[in-house]
Each structure stands twice: as structure tokens, then as C-alpha cells.
User: What shape does this take?
Amino acid sequence: MIILDQVVKRYGDHMAVNNVSLRAQAGEIFGFLGPNGAGKTSTIKMMMGLMRPTSGSITIGGHDIQKDPVSAKKILGYIPDRPILYEKLTAWEYMKFIAGLYNVDIKDMEERGRKFLEIFALGDRLNELVENFSHGMKQRLNLSAVFMRDPKVLILDEPLIGLDPRGARLFKEILHTSRNNGMCIFMSTHILEIAEQMCDRMAIIHKGSIISTGTAGEIRAQAHASESNLEQVFLHLTGGEDVVNIVKELQKM
Assistant: This one.
């Protein structure tokens, strides 16, 4: 469903993304991990068609995101870490706006829209202006609008930021249900415990290059660290051994 083929992104002399190739399949949650500045955001912006790659290609459900962006975006959902919504609309007006934008059937909009607003505890806030919502409420509204559309491919960038424990638990359950129903889910996260719990496969990017790909077990094997947790493997692969050493010293105090 998602194919990146030798994708490169340069900013002047800086190589932000270096020859990245990967595939995420239908019915899979694919994790995208890396330290700050590794190239995750640049990669996601190119996948969304918000930025052109210097070279290489990206296809979403068989549609080239640069050559046929409309077809690609029809099947694509995106949940950023900080949602940008039309704040002068009410929550229900926003849902209707998104439904119209993506040609969602009116009946589906009514049924699925109300269902997900109820799930994310916004059912009693339909007529409130979005500008009065907290960050977490805006994120839950964005989630409701995206799942109302039932996209075939979903790209998530730190999706749990701003969600309370209830919202986070519901969101994780919806992701697993969507994955089991055939959705392709691509999730960038800094929370390694979440990645290990939720992702079927993952890739670690460091300094613009993919340095490891596979299941959590396969990544441990590649790092020759089968007994280590994913956090330790991640620090080892991305040059964070100094953090491990500092933690050991603190534990001795």
C-alpha cells in the first residue's frame, strides 16, 4: 500500500533523507522510529505530498503521490501531532466539511461521524466552536473526522500527544481493529514501548538513512541484542550508548 523507492531529500548541502526504500502493507501497523532530526518529518511530508523529494518515488495504494496526488489522497488519512483545524466551525460543521471534501456519503457521515464523536467523548460538544477546544479535544475531533472517512491508508505522526489515558486506549483499540480490517497504518513515534506493543514491523531511521527494518525480534537480532528491550536496541543502533551509561551511574547513587 505504501512504497518508498530510493527517496532522497536535500536542503542545500544537507541530506535530510538518504536513499530511503521501504514498504508497508495492507493489514499492517508499520512503525517509523528515529531520534530528533533523523528525517522522519521530512519523509512523512513527502509521503503526504506536502513536499517534493529531490529524487525517488512514493506510491500510496498504487498512486504516485507526485504524479496523481488527488487519487492518492482520496484513500489517505493523516493525523499529525498538532492538528490544524478550522476553529470558527463547530465540531459538527467541521465533520460535515471534511465529509464534503472527501465525498463521504451523507448517510455514512451521519452514522460514522456521530459514532466516532461519541467514542472520543465529543458527542455532547457537537455545537461548540473548535476554537474553544483543548489540544486533546482537537486531536480527538481530528481522529473522529479521519476514521469517519475509513481511509485505506493512515499516516500518523506522534498521534498520542495530547490524548488522555482513556482517549489513548480507545485510539489503540481502533487502530488494531482497523489493521485487522485491512487498513495500512504507518506510525511515527518516539514512544518505543508503544511501537513494540503495537507495530507488526518497523524501520529505524538515523541521519537520514534506514539502519534497521523488521519485526521487533528481527531488529534485536540485527543488533545482536536478542535479550535487550527495544529501547536499549534503539540507543545502541543510533549511538545513544552514553545515555545507557549515565543511567547505570545514576542507579549506583
Summary: DSSP finds ten helices and ten strands in the chain.
